[in-house]
Recover the amino acids of this structure.
């Protein structure tokens, strides 16, 4: 699980700012955000388990 690319980070950032892209790009935008959120939750869970 690496860090997102610059392009992916920008896409995540505009999504968090509630700026939606037009269809069909919006599906990719929301999918990428969901993957990013899942990664963050997994990292938090691993951190809690390692305490």
């Amino acid at each position: 699980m690496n860090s997102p690319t610059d392009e992916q980070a920008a896409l995540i950032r505009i999504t968090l700012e509630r700026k939606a892209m037009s269809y069909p790009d919006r599906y990719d935008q929301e999918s990428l955000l969901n993957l990013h959120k899942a990664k963050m939750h997994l990292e938090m869970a691993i951190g809690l388990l390692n305490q």
